[in-house]
Design brief:
mainly alpha, Arc Repressor Mutant, subunit A
């Protein structure tokens, strides 16, 4: 199979898989409709972008071919909005988000005078001298800036969301945020290679650009299959957080700025004792969806004060604080000889975890052993 046929074959497979996954995301029943629709739109844009490689199967008009290449200016803004929708439960699309289409409109607008509106002969001449055309050079610079901006912003958002989650929640969403971070890094690698491909395209080594193009399509296919695997096996993977929540370091900073940060050591110690007594007696950690707001409501302590108490005073994330009680309770069950027939899977659900991986990770973090190994060592 020659290079062109290989490129077309991989393009067709990737295009079909992208459209299939987009259809699945739009039709599947879920609470996270906006997230699914945004990623479905991202996949449709990806399919359109890939269709530009199919000119050997059917004729694509020059205007359409160039317009397809500009679709890349919509892909990352869509992914950025998808990341926001996954991370924050109260995210909604607003008219102000239309600002993200400006690069896409700009790149097409500057091509109007000397490409879109001229004769076919002039179009061909433009393409033959593309590397020297200021419009093409401008678009490449704009694309590089856009890629760097959106990918760095997406990574920062996911990292911040993960930190807020650890400080306020104790469910299994941390796994989804970890996976979203990994997926964002994979896309960062993809677009970095794509930019490298574009650089070689306008040098004396165009063959390297073509090889990278095939490699990118394979990489893209693997990433899409990865997402499809996750979507099919974990349809409720994403449970997002409230964007109004602030990091503890910001809460403390605000109190310092307002000259209100004068914590009484005796009072904070009393509140800590009250909190620990509440955790032991009431066992709120058995609720797999426990949040800091739930404890705040039960104890009558403002969320702000409770968050500072746990995350700052104890120097422990709320997520780890709650899991420490779950693990201690699980250890008691594992030690109980009358419950030797209770499986590890049954125990993890009983103590408040809702996934085996999160239970094993937390148990090993707190004990240095897996639950099974711990039970055998007794």
């Amino acid at each position: 199979m020659d290079k062109i046929n290989l490129l077309v074959t991989i393009s067709v497979i990737t295009l079909l898989i992208s459209l299939f996954l987009a259809l699945f995301l739009v039709t599947v029943k879920t609470e996270h409709k906006l997230s699914n629709r945004l990623f479905a739109f991202f996949l449709i844009l990806t399919a359109i972008d890939i269709s530009g490689n199919l000119s050997d199967l059917f004729e694509i008009p020059l205007n359409t071919r160039i317009f397809i290449t500009s679709i890349v200016f919509l892909q990352l803004p869509t992914f950025y909005l998808y990341v926001l929708s996954v991370c924050y439960s109260d995210f909604k699309l607003k008219p102000s988000h239309s600002i993200h289409i400006i690069p896409f409109l700009t790149t097409n607008f500057i091509l109007l005078p000397r490409f879109y509106t001229v004769s076919p002969t002039a179009k061909i001449s433009f393409l033959e001298n593309a590397s020297r055309m200021p419009e093409v050079q401008f678009n490449h610079i704009l694309l590089h800036i856009q890629v760097v901006f959106y990918l760095i912003t997406a990574i920062v958002i996911v990292r911040k969301a993960k930190k807020i989650y650890l400080e306020n929640y104790a469910g299994a969403s941390i796994e989804s945020l970890n996976w979203l971070f990994q997926f964002t890094l994979a896309l960062s690698a993809f677009y970095s290679i794509a930019l490298l491909k574009n650089i070689f395209k306008f040098t004396q080594y165009p063959d390297i650009s073509e090889r990278l193009k095939i490699g990118l399509l394979v990489f893209e296919l693997i990433v899409i299959f990865w997402y499809l695997y996750k979507a099919l096996n974990h349809p409720n993977l994403f449970r997002n957080i409230d964007s109004k929540l602030k990091l503890v370091e910001h809460l403390i900073s605000e109190e310092k700025n307002e000259e209100q940060f004068a914590v009484n050591e005796k009072e904070s110690n009393e509140e800590l004792l009250k909190l620990k007594q509440y955790m032991i007696e009431e066992k709120p950690f058995l609720n797999p969806s426990l949040t800091i707001q739930d404890i705040s409501k039960d104890m009558g302590i403002p969320v702000r004060d409770l968050s500072i108490l746990i995350n700052h005073k104890l120097e422990q994330h709320f997520y780890d604080f709650v899991n420490s009680y779950r693990i201690a309770y699980a250890m008691d069950i594992l030690k109980d000889v009358t419950k030797s027939k209770v499986t590890v899977l049954e125990i993890l659900y009983e103590v408040g975890f809702n996934s085996k991986s999160s239970f094993n990770t937390a148990f090993k973090k707190h004990t240095g052993n897996t639950p099974t190994a711990y039970r055998k060592s007794l």
